[in-house]
Amino acid sequence: MKEWLEKAVGKGWTLTPAGGLTGDAYIATKDNHKLFVKRNSSPFLAVLSAVGIVPKLIWTKRMENGDVITAQEWLEGRDLTKEDMKSGQIMELLKKIHHSPELLHMLMRLGKKPVTSDQSLLEIEGRLVRLGLLEQYEEVAVALNYLVKLLPITRNQKLVVCHCDLNHNNLLMSESGEIFLVDWDNAMIADPVIDFGFLLKWYIPKEEWDEWLEKYGVTEHEYLYERMHWYLLLNALDYISWHSERHEADKVKERLESLSELNQFMESMMN
């Protein structure tokens, strides 16, 4: 795969792995210039670049084997820390994404269909059954049971463009203080609670949730936290499945511990 990237960037560039789960991203260096080069990025990247949500897209090349290679401007700066995630800038960025009719229109033009909670439940259940995870881990069976029980409260929500992986490592701050949200490979049209629920649960102290939501613009709170944890359970099961498919036992164990915590929260809310 690296050979294709070398062919795409041209002679004289040095490629260094940029990390990440897929291993498809590299930093290309030549003289004093740097590019972030990736294989098969989301076609949505050009639109996100145009509105300033990701670093500037420099070029896109389709290779002979069908792969699409993209190169983005490399910005000197840093990943955000967990503490940075409390910043109002993150909230404003999310509002910009979730309330943008332009982004929604473009993602739909690229063929993305809205993803409902019913559809998500059906898909994860099938995956868990196929991998034998329901029989293997009690926590997984308990979580799936909560998803089934609470499915009705997740229906009939306004579906918007969601990033779906708001880990602090996917947010970058340039030296000038601009914040960019990268790695849009999992983007979908779905319930925005997928994004802000993840942010609240893992980065914002619980006593600050109501204030954060008010500033974000959420005024209707009925079953909001239950809905939020429904998607957190779904996300945890998705990762457990992903690591199981790759035979990464240590990662599965880590995700199971997180899942147990979410299950306990669900139990406390339902009793």
How would you describe what is shown here?
There is one protein chain. The protein has 271 residues and is of the alpha+beta class. The protein has two domains: 2-74, Phosphorylase Kinase, domain 1, CATH 3.30.200; 83-270, Aminoglycoside phosphotransferase (APH), C-terminal lobe (Aminoglycoside 3'-phosphotransferase, Chain: A, domain 2, Alpha-Beta Complex), CATH 3.90.1200.10. It is built from eleven helices and ten strands. The strands form three sheets. A five-stranded antiparallel β-sheet has the order 1-2-3-5-4. The protein has a three-stranded antiparallel β-sheet with strand order 6-8-9, with helices on one face. The mean pLDDT is 91.
List strands and helices in order, with pairings:
Blueprint: H1 2-9, E1 14-17, E2 25-30, E3 33-39, H2 45-50, E4 57-62, E5 68-73, E6 77-79, H3 88-98, H4 101-109, H5 117-131, H6 133-136, H7 138-150, E7 160-162, E8 171-174, E9 179-181, E10 188-190, H8 193-203, H9 209-216, H10 224-245, H11 249-270
Antiparallel strand pairs: 1-2, 2-3, 3-5, 4-5, 6-8, 7-10, 8-9
Helix pairs in contact: 5-10, 7-10, 7-11, 8-10, 10-11
Domain Aminoglycoside phosphotransferase: 18-231
Protein name: Phosphotransferase
Pfam families: APH
Outline:
This protein has helices spanning 2-9, 45-50, 88-98, 101-109, 117-131, 133-136, 138-150, 193-203, 209-216, 224-245, 249-270, and strands at residues 14-17, 25-30, 33-39, 57-62, 68-73, 77-79, 160-162, 171-174, 179-181, 188-190. The chain is of the alpha+beta class and 271 residues long. The strands form 3 sheets. The protein has a 5-stranded antiparallel β-sheet with strand order 1-2-3-5-4. A 3-stranded antiparallel β-sheet has the order 6-8-9, covered by helices on one side. A two-stranded antiparallel ribbon has the order 7-10.
